[in-house]
Amino acid sequence: MPSIFLRKAQLAENSGPLALMLTLGLIHRSLRTRGFTLRRSRLSTDTTVSFFVVLLVNAWTLAVIIPALLLIVHQNDQLNFGGFIAALSSAPWIAEVFSLFWLSEFLTSHWYRSRRSSSDQFAGLWKMNSSNGPFGWRESSRPWARNLLFLVTATIIIPLGLIEIYQGDFLFGILSLAAFTLFSLASFPHNNYIESPHRHDGDMLRIALPTSHLEGTVYVLPSRVSSFEAVWSPKVKAEHLHTDAEMMSLFASMRTGSYSLSEPLRRLRATLSAYNEGVILQEQQVIDLAEWLLLEPHSLIASKHWKAKRPQGVHLIGRDLLYALAHAEYLVFLRKHLLPIHLRKRLGMLRKADRSGGLDADGSVHTIGYTEGLSGYQEAVRHIYALFNENVDHAALAPPRIPLPQSSALGRRPQSTEDYIESLWTLCLGHSESTFSALYMFCCVWFIEVGNVGGFHIFPFQCLSHQGDHVAWQVIWRQGWYECLLAQLIASSPLIAIGFAAGLV
Asked: What is the C-alpha separation between 95 and 201, in angstroms, rounded?
């Protein structure tokens, strides 16, 4: 028995694997505290960390195998063969095989990106399944690919574990087999990375829409590298934290009629402020957003066609689209000092200067939609359609006649659809500070009191597919990395303990 631990201690003299395992622990701690940055044109935190872990795992494997190979080549006797087997069992095989599996899916995901964004069929090794939230990497993988992953891992782990037990290394062999069993049976808990801070780069401004489900639509604001998108995504708790806390509470109070007329703007402001804390915008990105929102003729964003589908009979005046546009306008407003003078003076077109401090707009700038009655509402509607280069739907300007209930917001039963729109729009103007916040309040009240009728729908832009994008893909793969590295930690724990006992760490 002493010879067994002697061989293990000799292997532990190479402190590389121990240092790498400690590095993984530091990475985990950093991700929990500092969180993730989501990007499109540059490497995101998920991609960077994943590739770094792949390099760590391969370095670990080489660090324990190459010295043993050199030893058995130079001195080919039974004792050294036992040392070679010990080296093989000390390599991170669970993480090694998984890293190759992840790498193959990473490459195929970029190859099939356009197909996945427009179809719900399998493309490559992956078809996103987020029905149980951001943890379904197994369900999202092709069955044969997932089975191949476990088969290859078993082909390595089981023989090495049995040989270890046969040689008397019961602890190492049993833990190795136990780790693989836990990994293959999905026995590990869910990761908590979805609770870590999530920052959004200027080319990946994801707007999490309020939902009580574990998955749903997110809107991605346009940039120079992509147009406005509707993307299906698993629910990331950190992204939805303030959105659900504020807006879902607003919807609940509106359903009971117990809300105050100041509540929609107050809760919207709180959500916008929280979102702004996690946004990284360069000066040019702020200018691009401003030019798009203000309908500048030379806007580069405006030339890109949105990536989404519109349900038949649905116009663009929808609650959650206005929610996303309110985010875009707020981001520009808070960074107005980065704008050229001519754009800064035009911000009053979308925000009332007498209700927002710091605007350079003078009294001559008319705020879009801020005319009482139907004409003001229609002016705001036309601006929304102009943002997306769409012809205005007649149903958006003049919704058809529909049965109208007693209005909690107005305190009376409207005489007609036109009367309802005129009165409700005038009411919303009095409790808003911008064009988009007025439209958002209007759509919230309409949905609660009337519903998705008359061409209105809370999701006027819907996803082309349920395959998500590369951000959704990376969020789900976090669980795979989490499980495989926990399993590897269990399998390698004796080696780490021996290293600590030997004073190497």
From this structure: 30
Helix (H) or strand (E) holding 217: strand 215-220
CA distance 183 to 186: 5
Backbone φ and ψ of 44, nearest 5°: -80, 170
Coil/strand/helix, residue 280: strand
* Global pTM value: 0.90
For residue 81, give both structure tokens: 């063969």
CA 361 to chain centre: 36
Torsion angle (degrees, nearest 10) of CA 200, 201, 205, 210:
0
Residue with tokens 């409790």: 431
The secondary structure of 176-244 as a DSSP string is: HHHHHHHHHTT-SPPP-GGGS-EEEETT--EEEPP-SSSEEEEEE--BTTB--EEEEEE--HHHHHHHI
Predicted confidence (pLDDT) per residue in 28-62, tens digit: 999 999 999 999 888 899 999 999 999 988 888 88
Token pair recorded at residue 31: 């991700």
**pLDDT (tens digit per residue) in 251-270:** 999 999 889 999 999 999 99
pLDDT category, 112, cuts 50, 70, 90?
confident
Residue 217 one-letter amino acid: T
